[in-house]
Design brief:
185 residues, mainly alpha, 6 helices
């Protein structure tokens, strides 16, 4: 009887161990899963930035900027809008590509929201050259960040079409960054 209890107990422990190992194996991330998660976090940041910057020219509806500044702002908005549409097409073709994984710490999210609120107020309550310079400075920072996001994503991307897109986007954002810088001189 003792032997039978011992054998049943041993079989139960083995069964639990095997089941537990299978469960742990499903829960623990693999290298591929980790790489996809990191990639999607990068795409999420890029998508969010492109979404915001695709609307940047809307401020020109209520605020005036000289033609060279307005033209660059419109070009940035157009470029970001087109890039956002391209990312949407990539997502339609590959549902594993996600734009909802920014995973920023709550403190970082609150800090970014505070900065955005302050900058919005500064833009709305300024005019003339002060407004233009502030607007250009926001886009200098934004295009620099977008260029580097696209560059780092490019280095991690396996898909040839997305890789080409990211290289082109990085170059385009760098060009727009430089145009905005030149207008500040």
């Amino acid at each position: 009887m003792k032997r039978r209890t011992w054998v049943c107990g041993t079989l139960l422990v083995c069964a639990l161990a095997v089941t537990g190992c299978a469960t742990v194996q499903k829960v623990l991330p693999t290298a591929a899963w980790h790489q996809a998660r990191v990639r999607n976090e990068g795409y999420s940041l890029l998508y969010q930035l492109l979404s915001q910057d695709s609307d940047v020219a809307k401020i020109l509806i209520i605020k005036h900027a000289d033609s060279p500044v307005a033209d660059v702002i419109k070009e940035i908005a157009s470029t970001c809008g087109q890039a956002k549409k391209e990312l949407d097409l990539f997502h339609e073709k590959d549902r594993h590509l996600s734009f909802e994984m920014a995973n920023l710490p709550e403190f970082e999210q609150k800090t970014r929201a505070a900065i955005q609120s302050t900058v919005t107020k500064q833009l709305l309550f300024s005019s003339g050259k002060t407004f233009e310079n502030r607007l250009l400075l926001t886009q200098v920072e934004s295009m620099n960040y977008a260029a580097h996001l696209a560059k780092v994503l490019h280095e991690q991307e396996d898909n040839a079409n997305r890789k080409d897109f990211l290289a082109t986007l990085s170059e385009r954002c760098t060009t727009l960054h430089d145009k905005a810088i030149n207008l500040l001189k």
